[in-house]
Amino acid sequence: MSVDRLATAQATVDSPEADTLAARLFASGIDRRRFLKYCAIVTGVLALPPTFAPRVASALEKSKPPTMVWLEFQDCAGDSESLLRARNPSVADLILDTVSLDYHETIMAAAGHQAEAARDAAVARGGHIVVVEGSIPLGAGGGYCTIGGQSAEQILRNAAKGAAAIINVGTCSAYGGIPAASPNPTKAVAVGDIITDVPIVNLPGCPVNVDNLTATVVHFLTFGGMPALDDKGRPLFAYGQRIHDNCPRRGHFDAGQFVVNWGDEGHRNGYCLYRMGCKGPSTFHNCPTLRWNGATSWPIGAGHGCVGCSEPAFWDDLTPIYDRLPHVAAAGLDATAEKLGLFVVGATAVGFGAHGIGKIVQNKLSERGEHGGDDSGEHGGEPQPVGAAPDGAPTSPPADGNNSPGRTS
Amino acid sequence: MSRIVVDPITRIEGHLRIEAQVDGGKVRDAWSSTTMWRGIEEIIAGRDPRDAWFFAQRICGVCTTVHALASVRAVEDALGMEPPLNARLIRELIAAAQYVHDHVVHFYHLHALDWVDVTSALKGDPAKTSAVAMSLSNYPRSSATVFAGVKERLAAFVQRGRLGPFANAYWGHPAYQLSPEVNLLAVSHYLDALDFQRDFARVQAILGGKNPHPQTYVVGGTALPVDPKGEYALNDNGMEDIRQLLTKGLNFVQQAYIPDLVAIAKAYPEWTTIGGGLTNYMAFGDFTETPFKQGHPAAGGVLPGGLVRNRNLAAVQDVDPSKIAEYIKHSWFRYDGGEDKALRPFEGETHAHYTGPKPPFEYLDVNGKYTWLKAPRYDELAVEVGPLARMIVGYARGNTQIKASVDGALKELGAPVTALYSTLGRTLSRGLETEILAKHSLVLLDRLQANIRSGDLKTHDNRLWDPKTWPAHAQGVGFHEAPRGALSHWIVIEDQKVKNYQAVVPSTWNGSPRDAKGQRGAYEAALIGTPVAKPAQPLEILRTVHSFDPCMACAAHVLDADGNPVVEVKVQ
After folding, report:
1. What is the ipTM metric for this complex?
2. pTM value?
3. CATH superfamily, domain at A243-350
4. Distance from CA of A361 to the nearest CA of B (A)
5. Domain A17-237 is of which CATH architecture?
């Protein structure tokens, strides 16, 4: 294959009908059994009943790999590193077959002008997914973060044009994160503070758990839209449940058995970390059930309290890390962690708790005529069809901006 | 003369821009600029010093362990805490695993495509590739079937016309010199290494709950309890799991990484004479058997510390931390006392002072301030840090393991020791030390397992956990020899809060701009003389810059945490 041939191949962007995700996966040596297994795992991450796995598989077989443009601004590349830990599908399958990752500075071969040209070409085609890692500094006239001589804000605004959706990976792009922590030296803001006319999904965490990212992409491919979100713009499948409620140490909390010193007998026996500063009672994330690195472990599993890294402004609101929650969550409140958790949860839990997450997805299916039931009105958020439908026909993103949550704390 | 701008420099961590003056097919001068800054140390100011590691860890998600380690060491140094043996071993085990993970990812995913032409791999013959692979090592995935599968996958990928991360690169550039078979071999191992690094990261997940950003550090020890039979502690099963992963790591390094590195190095002999740059090398050293003296770099560890001046291997010196100071003459900061003198870290001050062009812009004013990096200097010297510095310092120290490793590789390449002072020497050094650390990780695990089995379950020094036990004023420094080089965190604690926090970081040493005396930083110096066959496709510039494994989020930070307001400058 000559270089000229490559250039020609790049120019003919319109791929044949056979270029579906499943076709690509099969072509890359993934057999059908492995494909179905991966669909089953992702179905689980999406908090759908196992019976949905065939629907996920069927939708994926018909969908075209979406173009992904991954932007890094005020970041530490921790979310990019998290991407490299993907296993369902594997990172190789993900970046070679599942999506067309046309711009990602940490991974891509091209540099300089050639890299920018790849980004601009992907954006010009439209219908792409923009993934953002890192906050955007507004101070110093944009001088705190420039790439190719353009400010982060300029790059973000250009890349968002015609985008089907924006996925914020990590707490920095979702809520400002550590650069926006007091005293916010660079006037860092979240993506949602700048872009209001493209649907935004927040996948906070420090870093994002890549399984939640792949599940979000699969949801997009399967249902033609982004998953139902909470009032902080986070998918309910991943951020709908409180860490404290799913914690394997919860029994010790209820029994009043606490770790008092690092390495003490209680610590070795898995007692509750509340007195060591655990923020699980005020944090919504699927860490306890999904865990990290192929379900190897998670922070509380390895003996350290939760720091609340998926909550907006946790760097200020949930620190000091080793202080017990009453000191930080609500001044003057002398309450148990249980009450405080509910206090922090507020309306979110009430809003979806009674219905469960399966219902929300069923709504999406009924919208597309794939499900007979009429569940309308059973949940708070309207389904938001965005971007490319599974058949590949691009649709205009809604312009109402309802799903562009900014910082909510 | 023409000015080349490469921005973004991709396949690194962070935001780096290189401007280079090219004449007669060679770089005549170069300027290294980091174009992003967050001010993390300023954000740490005023907070609980026990939280500092968690904030400092976010300096970098690639070097996801190094700042946490340097930070807890700094606080422990300030307060006189003594982490127990189990905690020290767990931390060093994480650090050693970080070396292996980080260097493998750098070689295959960040650096290899500077030497490997992916499109040439499509012409590789799978049977011949298999023969080449088997001649290099006993790596299991070396059959013709494996390479045929990779080739087929690659061809299908190209056929579809969407090259994703491989689009628009410098494929077909005359500076690519590997045979199609070695290219196919390297692409195959690029994919294998993606799977390898994902699985190997589990070491840190077992010990720290997750990776990136493992969450196991606490000042005074570790948050991971140990108990051979405990269900909620690092137990026998966990340690056996780790042993298997570390063994796989050593195998991958010995059977894939090192042989691939040697095969590539043999095809590019001229790159042992290009990219040498600075002539001074510094390492702090690390991985000592006994606790090292607080406030000083570790001495006598698996990685020795020291300073080599002017490439004089006969006169290696000890590093004196009081000789570290930083300039800001060409950095977007200002000092109260003027721009011409350097400040030592404990007395350091930084006020952000952006005077660069208003974006969008085409060129920086390289005669003025042009980067968010300061210019750290040791005893007024510009020094290189990192794998090459470590191998040179270790070699000069006569460290038997390092000497054997370096001499063996040079013999294999038929190159003299001066070949180390080059772009390829840097890349080679990184591979050699990866094997040393992969071996050492198993030694650390043996020691940890033996100590736990002896009944020592202590993981934390609780005596000084409560801030009420602290003096009104304390200050300390934490050293770590990180994968990218000599790292130090400096903390001043007053009334139980962080008064001043500073990190002097490897990529700041290497990526620094000129200092007040006009001395170039390591990237800038190394680029001079680098050939550029096609100015529109400056592949060779990427080779030399990538040989340092730049990490710019690490490098750019404010060093003053004294509550000084950040000054913003309106750009005309």
Report:
1. 0.95
2. 0.89
3. Cytochrome-c3 hydrogenase, C-terminal domain (4.10.480.10)
4. 29
5. 3-Layer(aba) Sandwich (3.40)
